[in-house]
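Dear colleague,

Thank you for sharing your sequence with our group. We've completed the structure prediction you requested, and as agreed, I am returning the results in plain text so they can be pasted directly into your records. Please verify that the sequence below matches your submission; if there's any discrepancy, let me know and we will rerun it promptly.
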Amino acid sequence: MAEFRTTIHLPSITSMLGQAGRPLLEFTLIPLALFWVLFTQVGFDGGLFAALGWSALAIGRRLVQRQKLPTILLITTGLLVVRTAVGLWTGSAFLYFLQPTVQNFVFALALLVTIGLDRPLLAKLADDFCAFPEALSSHPGIRRFFKRVSLLWAVVFLVNGATTIVVLATQTVGNFLVVSTAGSYSVVAMGIVLSLWWFRRSLAGHGVRLRIGAPTAA
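Please find the predicted structure tokens below.
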């Protein structure tokens, strides 16, 4: 049995799911839903402006309230600006959705390139979904973990990119949105489960035990 020398407390499961779910809902699912609603009711351009307008509103609200801009919001909005410009220029839904598909490969490359940094890109993105205490994020074992798990997520993005290209080339826009969203999040969910298992195993190997929820009062 592992001998634990340090115990680190994380927020409750409900709190962590809420913190992780909000960025996913706000930065991905809502823009996608707005695009589909306006696309079917107004047209392609209406869908483009609806998705981009939501992301711009999310950034503007945080700037007005002087809140920190999440890394994932800046990345997704920057990429969405490029997608919207291409969509307006070409009028092609295929090219509009091809870009986020290609971006899977770009993310995979970015994860691999930043492995050599003190804090890889994956570690910075993790801060947007679950704010780890300083005692945990600065632990040498955690730094090594994020370098290694970056390889896993590079594979996740490569698989997502390859499968999405196939669906995009063979399905209508409506079917593509349903099938690609369900498929992508299924692969991502498996990556999360494997990452969490690896995370706990890595910590245990360094004598660190995780406790979920507030520490018990002495």
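Summary note from our side: The radius of gyration is 19 Å.

Kind regards,
the structure core
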